[in-house]
Amino acid sequence: MAENVLVVHGGGPTAVINASLYGVIEEARASGKIGCVYGAIGGSEAILKERFLDLMKYPREKLRLLLATPSTAIGSSRYALEADDYKAMVGIFQKHQIKYVLFNGGNGTMDTCGKVYEACKGAGIFVVGIPKTIDNDIAITDHTPGFASAARYMAETTAEVGMDVKGLPIHVCVMEAMGRNAGWITAASALARKKPGDAPHLIYLPERPFHEEEFLEDVKKLYEEKGGVVVVVSEGLKDEEGKPIVPPIFTSGRSVYYGDVSAYLANLVIRKLGVKARSEKPGICGRASVALQSPVDREEAVLAGREALRAAMGGQSGVMVGFIRDEAADSPYRMQIRMIPIKEVMLYERILPEEYINQRGNDVTEAFVKWCRPLIGERTWEYMDFQELYEQENNGANNREDVPE
Amino acid sequence: MAENVLVVHGGGPTAVINASLYGVIEEARASGKIGCVYGAIGGSEAILKERFLDLMKYPREKLRLLLATPSTAIGSSRYALEADDYKAMVGIFQKHQIKYVLFNGGNGTMDTCGKVYEACKGAGIFVVGIPKTIDNDIAITDHTPGFASAARYMAETTAEVGMDVKGLPIHVCVMEAMGRNAGWITAASALARKKPGDAPHLIYLPERPFHEEEFLEDVKKLYEEKGGVVVVVSEGLKDEEGKPIVPPIFTSGRSVYYGDVSAYLANLVIRKLGVKARSEKPGICGRASVALQSPVDREEAVLAGREALRAAMGGQSGVMVGFIRDEAADSPYRMQIRMIPIKEVMLYERILPEEYINQRGNDVTEAFVKWCRPLIGERTWEYMDFQELYEQENNGANNREDVPE
Known about the structure:
By secondary structure, chain A is of the alpha/beta class.
């Protein structure tokens, strides 16, 4: 009897989710024991509709394109499964001789994965989770494939925007980062800095209550000093009472739609400080960018796919691939794979710990930078900055006066 | 007596303005006749303050970093010069033995360049303009260095966002492009398409009055068909009366601050159609991106720098480097350099001509795509799209039902 694999994607895409898919196919091929690797075309819902495509039949050079294909090549969904759906799935898996089911996704998908695992118990079907989220909010694992690329995008883009604002220092630029409850991506903007004083000049995270007065104070001081200021903010900033600082625009059923934090804060700066401000909100451009994928992330995503199938073929079920970092002091970056029971993963949403946030709540700490640095890979960008060289030659004196627009 | 060169940057940065600076330095070196190539550190204002740095003294391998340095390495300004300033400049040029003055910028900078040229007449100082603007709104020249990189950014990013939205088709995504009066960058998003039906699904340009009812009608139809819709809009959309569709937030002196068109339209879709919508506004991330520079643009920017100095050294003054495209039918892309009198350049702001906009005003024409294609360089991105392959195998039948969120 053939042994087939099914891969299902859940939730929002990342820059490397397809790299994990590639890893699964490569592992299946290497094992010599797998008939088909089916992709569920359109997420969990596609299982019920039996929308399966065998991916093994495509030539390897085509499959390698998965490493540089943004979003999810097989489609995803946010379809909410019902209790009956889980039972129905078992029959569908058996009909298609699917022995290994791999769910790739974030917290919501791991919940589904755990329920499918329960339904498949005793049916000889092995269910394993592959973690994926740009938000990095999955518990226990050191980090999650997809995060490091979103982090590198934020770091490199902030460095570029920082140069832009420094080149024509006439405004306050408020950049918005994804991650409504967890500030990991926002924090990663700090990796744009090569030396103190570089952009980003301020970082505001959703883990700390946001105070408008303090924000305006910080911005004003920096604007007077530099003329051009780069502020990075999380899309999910909340006030002292835990309410989003931007009121909802519209509520429809369970869904609430908020306005953009970056635009809100740029407007605040304009109105309260009377200086030019603009907002940049790359949004999903950031999670879809192939050019700024982190090579480390891509490699780890492939590995996560391979290890998931290997674990399932080894008889494991109800587990998720986790990354455990080698914590030995000053050792080079090294990851180990550990299978984590899905039930443990579901315990909590992982937010930025206190030791990664500075006291005033307007920056990250050196400990965060040290943790994050290896994930985004080598710093590949080096700029020629004659403004800086000029200041150095002239004894560091900044004799450029602020130019009113 | 030494013959020195001064390069001045004006206005907002582009991804390749430093490539033109590199071209000037390379040409100066090759000529064997130039003492120093000074950079004015901080735009026109820096001339008056004599903030000059000799760039020739840096090793060539360092200078090559200019090709991949975003923003302007010597700084820019929007300082408004007074009549007296032009006279003062002549003395400053003479004091520093500056015989060749090159202004790199857009329409505003070319105006300055023309005035400096008038002031320098008879003083043996030669003044030449290097065009630069992401907006592509400079007259006469076929296009402007800086535009093609902004265009490639918009095309490639729209393709990536298109894959993202297709992978999880649950919302309308409104992307905003820079260019308040001229729709060139917005239009360039069309180059994201590999085949009909690909994102962007709708394009709205500032050259045509924007009608909210038509927009909502177009979006509704596409949303019902696809579930995920990508709309690209110019930041400067105006209504039938020429008024910006987003009212000003704040006015301060000559400056008027508008809210974001993308956020405004996403809100409109949510409120009027009751479907999920979000806005993406990469903004200056787009003009600062080194990873998505167009190789053609970079090469032409270097050339523009070299040709500007060559023209000045050849005794030309009061001219700007222009690109004239070889128009022979079906010939491969080929550009010729022509020096354009600065006075002619100042005649008008170049907007997208009628033949590049479709009748309904919600897309560009094939003629635009044909014009723009060679500028962004080879299409380097190829995606593995199993959703598409699945649909093809299943007779093109789209049996995926819309999933309410």
